[in-house]
Design brief:
The structure is a homodimer. The first copy, chain A, has helices at about 20-35, 50-55, 60-70, 85-100, 120-125, 140-155, 165-175, 190-195, 265-275, 285-290, 305-310, 315-330; strands spanning about 5-10, 45-50, 75-80, 105-110, 195-200, 200, 210-220, 230-240, 260, 345-350, 355-364. By secondary structure, chain A is of the alpha/beta class. Chain A folds into 2 domains: about 5-115 and about 210-230, Thiolase/Chalcone synthase (Peroxisomal Thiolase, Chain A, domain 1), CATH 3.40.47; about 160-195 and about 240-364, Thiolase/Chalcone synthase (Peroxisomal Thiolase, Chain A, domain 1). The first copy, chain A, has a 9-stranded mixed beta sheet, sandwiched between helices. In chain A, strand 10 and strand 11 form a beta hairpin. In chain A, helix 4 packs across helix 12 (about 315-330). Chains A and B meet through helix 3, strand 3, helix 4 and strand 8 of A and helix 3, strand 3, helix 4 and strand 8 of B.
Chain lengths: ~375, ~375
Amino acid sequence: MRDVSIIGVGQIPVAEHWDRSIRDLAVEAIAAARQDAGIDRVDVLFVGNMLSGELAGQENLATLVADAAGLLPIEALKIEAACASGGAALRAAHLAVGSGAHDYALVVGVEKMTDYLTDGVTAALALAADADYEAAHGITFAALNALLMRRYMYEHQARHEDFAPFSVNAHANAALNPHAMYRQPITVDDFERSPWVADPINILDSAGICDGAAALLIGPTSETRRARRPPVRIAASATATDTLGLAERKDPLVWDVDLFEPHDAFTIVSVLTLEACGLADRGRALKLAAEGRIGLEGDIPICTFGGLKGRGHPVGASGVYQLVETVLQLRGEAGPAQVRGATIGMAQSVGGSGSVAVTHILQV
Amino acid sequence: MRDVSIIGVGQIPVAEHWDRSIRDLAVEAIAAARQDAGIDRVDVLFVGNMLSGELAGQENLATLVADAAGLLPIEALKIEAACASGGAALRAAHLAVGSGAHDYALVVGVEKMTDYLTDGVTAALALAADADYEAAHGITFAALNALLMRRYMYEHQARHEDFAPFSVNAHANAALNPHAMYRQPITVDDFERSPWVADPINILDSAGICDGAAALLIGPTSETRRARRPPVRIAASATATDTLGLAERKDPLVWDVDLFEPHDAFTIVSVLTLEACGLADRGRALKLAAEGRIGLEGDIPICTFGGLKGRGHPVGASGVYQLVETVLQLRGEAGPAQVRGATIGMAQSVGGSGSVAVTHILQV
C-alpha cells in the first residue's frame, strides 16, 4: 500500500447552525479544505456521519454532498461507525488512496443535531448502544458512561472533582480556538457546581449537542509537492472493535506522540482512553491530569483545541475535527494553542461505549 | 492494486422474518459465506445497510454484527449509499483487499424492514430522496419512479402493459429460487390487473418490503487456491453519482456480459438501466423484453434469481444478493436458473432515483 498524506484541511465553527442545512455545513468545510490544499482534483468522497437519517431526514448523504459540492459524478460513500464515523471515513479514504484506485480523496465529517429537542437527540445517540440489550431498557449514553465512571471511582478511590482537570483543560484550550463552541474557561468550582446529567456525570463532564463539519483532502505522499500547504503523513491508520473496553490497540508509536486528541465525550472517556492507549497506567490517568501533564505545556497535551468537551461534539463530524486539529498542530499553525515542536500526533475516534475505535497517527 | 476474487457466498431466504433480529439475519448469512469458502480467516468486515437506524433502532451496526458473529476485535465499518449500500460495501471491501491492507474481507448486506407498518417504511425509504427539495413535499419513491415511467411512456409511446415482461420474467425466475420471497409465476393479465401504487406504477411493477441478508468473503486472487469453491474474479468495481433530486437532471431518462442483475426496484428502473448501460438503445428496452431476450434463454438474461421484484428487495442487502447470485451463475451452481456458459456477469446496485450506482463485473 502506498504512502498517503493529508494535504488540505477545512472546518467551520462548531455551533448551533439554525440557518444552515447539513448540506450547507458539508459544502463549506469541503470548500475550505480544497482551498487549503490548492489542488483542484478530487477522485472520491467519503462522508463520515452517524445520524443524518434520524436527525436531518437524509440518507444517501454522500451522494447529496457530492451533488451540493459540485463533485458529480465522482464515487461517493457514507461511512458509519457511530461517533467514530469521522475517523472511519478517513480510514476508508486511506484504503482508497493507498490502494492506488484513487489519487485524491475528500473526507468530510458532518453532523446536524440541533434541529431536534435534546430528548430526540439523546434517543438518536442511543442508537449506538445495543438496541436489544441496552437501548430497549431506556439507557442513554450519559447513563452508560455514568456506570463506567462510578465503577472507576470505586476501583481507584477517585472523587468526582478528580475528573475536573480534563474539563478545565478542554475549556482552557477551547478558549484559544475560534472554531470552538464553548470558548469560556472554567474552574474546578464551576465543574463541581454544574448540574447532574446522570450521577456521577454532570454537565461539565459531558460534550454538548451541536452542529459542525470538517474536511480533509488526502493524496499519495509522492504527489504532495504539488500541494500549497506542508503535507502531513498518515503514519498509521487502524480500526478495532470491542464489546466494551478499549483493549486491543498496542501501537508502539503511541509512546512517542507529541499530542493526543482523545474522544472526550465524557471526562471518564478521556481517563479510560489514556489508560487503554498506554499513556497512563491503569488507575493513574487522574493523577496525570492533576499534575498538569495534559495541558498545552505538559508532556502529553490532549484536547489541544478544546476537544469534544470544549470545541463541541457534532458526533459524526468530531473525528474529522480531531484530525484537522492534529494537522494544524503538526504544521505549526495552531496559533496560541500550538504544542511546541510537535511532529507526531494521534487522534482517536470512539463509537459506542468503547465499542469501536478508529486511530490515526499523523507525522511531519 | 492487486487482483481480488470472491471465494465464498452465503444468503438466507428473503422473507418477513418476524422471529429474528437484524443481527440474527446478518450472522446467519456470514456463517453461510464462511462455510462456503472453507477459509476461517477474516480481517475486516464491511456491512452494507441503509435503514438500520430508522427501522431496526440500531446504528453502530458493523460493530454489532462483528460482535454477534464472533469476529471481535476486527475492523468493522458500515457503508451507506441508500439502496446501493450492498454493492457499496463490496466496493469498500475491494479497496481494502486490493490495497494490501487486509487479505480477507467479509461483506454482508442486511436489512430488516418488516417490523414497521408500510407507511413507516415508505417514509424511511424516502430518506434516499432529497430531504429539502423532494421528501419535504411528501413524495415517495414509488411517486418519483411514477414520474419517470410516465415520462418514458410519453417519449417512447409505450403502454403500461409493455412493462409486463420485466415483472413476468422476474417472477418466473424467482419461482426457481429457493431464497426468493415471491415464488409464484405471474401472467401479463395478473400484471395488468394488479392495484395501482402511484399511477402508472402498480404493485407488480414494484419490489416488495422484506427482510434479508447475504454475504461474500473476498480475498486476493493469488491466494484463492486455498478456497473450497471456485473463485470468481472481480473484473471491475466502480461507483458513480448523479444529482440526488430528480428534478435537477438534464435528462431524467438517460442513465459484453452473459447476464445482468439490474436494480429492478420498479419495472421502469430495469428499462432505464438497460438503456443507460448500453444494453439497449434509448427507447428500445421494452422491445428487448417483448422479444424474450431478457429470459434465462435470451441473449441478455436479467434478474436470473428473480431480481428485486421476485426475490425481494431488503434494500441495504439487495446489492449483496445480486452479487451472490452472479457468483452462483458463474460457478455453474444456479440450478434450474442456470444461464448456460456464463463466464462474465454484471451486477448493479442503485440508490435514490439513479443518484448513485455501484457496478461490479465478475468473471471466471
